[in-house]
Amino acid sequence: MKSRPKMKRLVVRHHNPVRVALLFIAVVTSAVLAGWGILEYARARSGFDFDSLREEAQLLSDKNEELLSTIDDLRGQQAVLERSQQIEREAYKQLEGTVAGLQEEISELKSELAFYRSIVAPVESSGGLRVQTFEVSGNGLDRGYRYKLVLTQVLKNDRVVRGRAEVAIEGSQNGRMAVLDLAQLDPSKNGFEFKFKYFQNFEGDFQLPAGFSPHRVTVKVGPRDGGNAVEKIFNWPA
């Protein structure tokens, strides 16, 4: 007698998607809570406080902004001080120039005052025609010079004086004594004819010949009215 084959049991299970979703949410939530708990536990164990860290970071940020603002203010003050110092330096230079100009003007006025005093109240008691000054200086040219001759007459002589002046430059030419006539060295003046009541200036330029070494200058002044001639010697400037 043959045995019957065994029949497999068919199990019918009901699928519930809502239940699966709820189960998945429960698992995820449990995992998140477990992770958060672990993080809090770790933070508590290590003494790490995120809230304090955020507060400290905010304080540092505020302090940084304050320092940046202070730096900007200091830079502005520095710019103002530098500008003020520049203005002061420029003003000081202008003041120095003004003072130097005034000192030079005062010196010129003193010279003029001394000159007019020599005419109004001369040191010498005798009046009449006089050679006040003879000055010579370089004019920048090779062996070239600038000269100035001043003739005066004291005020107590109220008349006009006329005459002629002679200017001789004495020196040596190639080892021998030599004399040069300034009127010939400066022909533009056509001699030193004068006519004045109080004073008269003669100015011009001249050039010494090569090989001539000047030593002194002799000025002779002779009035035409028969008065006494005047002579004065000036050493050549070093």
Question: Could you explain the architecture of this structure?
Answer:
- With 238 residues, the protein is α+β, with helices and mostly antiparallel strands.
- The protein folds into 2 domains: 49-121; 129-235, Immunoglobulins (Immunoglobulin-like, Sandwich).
- Helix content is 44%, strand content 30%.
- The protein has 3 helices and 8 strands, in the order H-H-E-E-E-E-H-E-E-E-E.
- Strands 3, 4, 5, 7 and 8 form a 5-stranded antiparallel β-sheet that branches. It has a 3-stranded antiparallel β-sheet with strand order 1-2-6, with no helix packed on it.
- It is rod-shaped.
Question: Which descriptors apply to this entry?
Answer:
3-stranded antiparallel sheet; Immunoglobulin-like; 3 helices; 5-stranded antiparallel sheet; 44% helix; 238 residues; single chain; alpha+beta
Brief account:
This protein is α+β, with helices and mostly antiparallel strands and 238 residues long.
Residue share in helix: 40-55%
CATH class of the largest domain: Mainly Beta
Strand content: 25-35%
> Which H/E pattern describes the elements?
HHEEEEHEEEE
Low-confidence residue ranges:
none
Q: What is the overall shape? A: rod-shaped
Mean pLDDT score, rounded? 80
Count of separate DSSP helical elements:
3
Mind sketching the topology for me?
Elements: H1 17-46, H2 50-120, E1 129-138, E2 144-153, E3 161-173, E4 176-181, H3 182-185, E5 192-196, E6 199-207, E7 212-223, E8 230-235
Antiparallel strand pairs: 1-2, 2-6, 3-4, 3-5, 3-7, 7-8
